[in-house]
User: Fold this.
Amino acid sequence: MKFPQTITKGRGSNTQKVVIYGRTPAKQRYRIAYYRGGERIMESFSTYGEALDRAREVCEQLARHGRAPALSPKETEDARAALELLGDYCRQTGKPLSLTAAVRLFTDAARRLGSLALVEVVDKYREATASVHPVGLDKAVEEYLRLIESRTLPARPGDRPQLSPDYFRHVQKHLRLLAETLPGHQTTDLSQANLDAFFSRLASYSPKSRNHYRADLGKFLRWCISKDYLPRQTRLLESPILQMERAGVEDIEIYTPQEYQTLLAAAPQILRPVLALLGLAGLRDAELRRLRWEDVFGRPGYVEIGARIAKTRQRRLVPICPALAAWLAPCAHLAGPVWPNSENLLHKTMREVHAAAKVSRKRNGFRHSFISYRLALLGDTAKVALEAGNSPQIIFQHYRELVTREAAVCWFNIKPDAAENVVLLPGKVGGL
Assistant:
């Protein structure tokens, strides 16, 4: 069989032709070629029979329609406008395109999209496939850490920063461990397998600690997406390894009234009001470090935990019980920070006092003790939650029925001896 073959239909000026091309070493399919609307069209087929049937069908269609009928004035105007729009497109993009080809492209796309608008689909596609600029994972981590660190600085002197330095230190530890686990990797190399390898290093950690890593890693991945360091359609955030674990209930450790009294007696003078505020007002350690004497004595009868101090950034008032008032009385003339020294010195002094008093140190022990004894004394979960800056659900779940009311009465009646009412001198203390 010789190729090319020509299939014809019609007579005279309406004669239509379709050419069939055979297979060659370079092209392993049969092809047909014909003209429609001034544009050459080619189609390919796996068998000669399919090519022949299609050639005859096309030839029949072309002959049946013949030459295009004359256009109406409105159709002529539409065609002219379409050609102008197409000309603008070709000039702007440098891509030659006939009106027939443009209409065919549009109709084919519209047919496949059904009820969806073509422009809408294109916009969503472009949004999903924004250009990605991968960078080294270690560089991305350090860039993100610089951003977080900048938020630990106050906007103005005296303002509370957006994030605490403690939070920054934890994020820094978590993400640098990620970069250390995947050395030489790009951000776009991050995969399910990478995340599994990273969390395998945390197997000995508690579920609560692993959840902290998950939270920080999730924020980092979202930041990478916003920077186009990761594709927007990434499914890493859906990874099973990033789903929060159900953490076990934390054991609540509290001090007995006898232990608390021993610690207060063993503490140096500058630490006694600190211990009193922690145990008799329930302040968190970080809140205590932000507290000033103006907050303690500015509102008679209450310690005012303002938004710049509170962990939740929500103001609360804690009543000053008679025992706390007695411990604070020698400090009434002071101004400035309640603890004027560093955080490290506070922890060092706490360790020394516990050692001297032979009392084991308990994690968040003073706050846990305050909430437990206060709930036993008042029997009012909602009121204790307001004073502690916590939710009633947490108070009810963790602190109910831990101590007796008799022990609570003892706790809130621990007062200094008359000999201990020593007036403190203002200013920092370099060594304790």
In short: The mean pLDDT is 87. The chain is about 50% helix and 10% strand.
